[in-house]
Amino acid sequence: MSTSPDRGWAWLVLLGSVGEHIVMSYLAYASGMIHIALLENFNADVLTTTCISALFLALMTGSGGLALQNCVFGAIFRPSKAELALTTANSDRKERFCDFVSSYMEIVRSGSMLCVCLGFFLANISIYLLYIHYPEYCLHTKSTKMEVSIFLSIAGIFGCFTRILFGMANNSHNIDELLMLFGVFSLLGLSTIIFPLFSSFTTAKVMFACLLGGYSGCCWAVVNSIVINILGHEKVAHGVGYLMVYCGVGTFIGPPLAGFIINYGGTYGDSFIVAEQWTPKKVDDFEFTVAADENKQTILASNKTEENDSFLIEEIKNLNIDIRFINKE
Prior knowledge:
It holds the Pfam family MFS_1. GO terms for molecular function: transmembrane transporter activity. The chain crosses the membrane at residues 46-68, 113-134, 146-166, 178-200, 206-231, 243-262. It comes from Mytilus galloprovincialis (Mediterranean mussel). This protein is mainly alpha-helical. It contains 14 helices and no strands. Helix 2 runs antiparallel to helix 3 and helix 2 (31-42) packs across helix 7. It is globular. The termini are far apart.
């Protein structure tokens, strides 16, 4: 069955995607406000409360099966022509359990994929540390709860804009996805270490909310393309799921780390400095390792293609010689 965009299904998929992101964005961006409510109502220490908040975020990120509200929006996604063709091609093939496991082991053994996963693992330690503790930090610097909620809304709005811009840039063949990812994480880390110096100013809080929402949200626009470049189209779903497990573990580690610092004599500013240490310096090492590996694979593939082309040319020449010889006979 044809699923071309002119039949109107593309708009329905877009509507479902918007609804899914409304739910997920509320759970992610409002986590800091939920953390404040838990602190006020249960009077527990920061570390214990942060562990609860981090567990909620980690399960949301790392255990997709628990987020059943997404099924409501995902159910209206019409299968694409590529998916229908793949399903038809594989309808008569029975996959054994060992084949299923081996397909995942290929992903686990991929050095490039491991580097990307470790990069996102470290980045999520920093990003969700900020999302949990940024609202509480603003309250400690004389902002009201209403102002904090506005700051988080601004972060979400800028996340929308940067995802669009990042997706447009990703369509250009002259821009490398890993280089863009390194750039935005580096800028986020730089703004994180500068923010505590100006945290008493409302303008600084607004600017940091813009940077936090924009630079932490746009990275997801290139995840699929990076996974496809490394693993191919056939394993994109497995690869993204494998990546999200690392993101979930990083999400669980980050907020309690800040809670530990605050409980044992540190400040929110100290925890923000720790968050900066996880973001740019570590991710660029992993991503440039991936870039080097991808370049190596490209060179090997190019050499292999050239060898195949030269072999075909020789075969064609030999075939022409044989044909001429037969004609003479």
